[in-house]
Amino acid sequence: MSLPNLHQVTSPAHFQSLLQQDLSRVSLLNFHAPWADPCIPMNAVVRELAAKYPALLVLEIDADEQDDVAESFSIESVPSFLLLRGHTLLSRIAGADAPALTSAVAEHLAPQAAPLAATDAAPAKPAVVDEKDEESRLRALMTQSKIVLFMKGTPAAPRCGFSRRMVGVLESEGITEKEGGLTTFDVLEDESVRSGLKKLNNWPTFPQLIVRGEFVGGLDVVQEMVENGELREIVGGP
């Protein structure tokens, strides 16, 4: 069934032209990738929402093919969903969370609700994190096996193209969880690990490869090390 409010984005210019048609309209941006299994059921959910809400502009965006658009919205994993009104961000949903997406769409397309009554409850105090304890935890994770890969998602279900490619690079070198010696950690499951490793390793993105407790690098660095044989040298041995 063809839906008049659902469009496959083919270029940044196409994306902008669709968005500019009505800046008062609510738009749902569905960032997906064909290799990411969690995207399959969520794409079906998005089509159901497009059919249920004809006033909703639904834009399907392949995050790999339209990487400029994905980067402009700081998309770090798929599936990811953004709700906009014109160019104003209303909501961001990361991951295959159908209830959260459905609720967000309903909220922003429904008449504006009355503000919630104020409560007398005092705001919760932020937890105090001991930086030394946190660093000890991170280093323990980095040394849990000889080779540790901090990535988005899992080898079987990566959540970003860079993580998927890193897994492929390591597999080409015979470095897999099945073969032993490799442990992976999904940083999307633990924000403190995700933010902490960026600071500890002075590296702003993922995946991050660790060998014998030492930070090696991201995808580009590891690819270069594979090409010049350096990765085999540092991985070899007990």
UniProtKB/TrEMBL annotation:
Thioredoxin domain location: 1-110
Protein's recorded name: Thioredoxin domain-containing protein
Q: Which Gene3D superfamilies match?
A: Glutaredoxin (3.40.30.10)
GO MF, any single term: metal ion binding
**InterPro entries from the UniProt entry:** Glutaredoxin (IPR002109), GRX_PICOT-like (IPR033658), Monothiol_GRX-rel (IPR004480), Thioredoxin-like_sf (IPR036249), Thioredoxin_domain (IPR013766)
One of the Pfam families matching this protein, by short name? Thioredoxin
A single GO BP term for this record reads:
intracellular iron ion homeostasis
Q: Which UniProt keywords apply?
A: Iron, Iron-sulfur, Metal-binding
Report TM segments: none
